[in-house]
Recover the amino acids of this structure.
């Protein structure tokens, strides 16, 4: 069983799914193309919800949440294919951001 709140468990769940197929993970360039495709789909949804472009009557229902989920799956797949532990790189990124940007914006009182 997986802990749905653990990034390591999410990575394992994706790996368990993909590892059952002969094809395995896509190449890095294909992963980047998939990532870009999913970003575009997210942008389209955000534009429908917050932008000036309403959804066509013929378009399928979709949500920002669903597109973020798809994007997360591709991100995890890409990280797995490169043997990158997302919890470690997230910690490194947050430490950098918390240091670099700690005085960048107005803090709440």
């Amino acid at each position: 069983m997986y802990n749905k709140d653990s990034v390591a468990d999410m990575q394992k769940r994706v790996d368990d799914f993909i590892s059952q197929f002969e094809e395995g993970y896509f190449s890095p360039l294909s992963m980047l193309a998939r990532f870009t495709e999913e970003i575009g789909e997210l942008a389209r949804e955000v534009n429908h919800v917050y932008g000036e472009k309403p959804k066509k009557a013929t378009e399928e229902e979709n949500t920002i949440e669903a597109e973020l989920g798809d994007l997360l799956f591709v991100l995890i797949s890409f990280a797995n294919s490169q043997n990158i532990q997302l919890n470690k790189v997230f910690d490194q990124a947050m430490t950098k951001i918390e240091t670099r940007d700690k005085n960048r914006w107005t803090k709440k009182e």
Summary: The two ends are 42 Å apart (CA to CA).
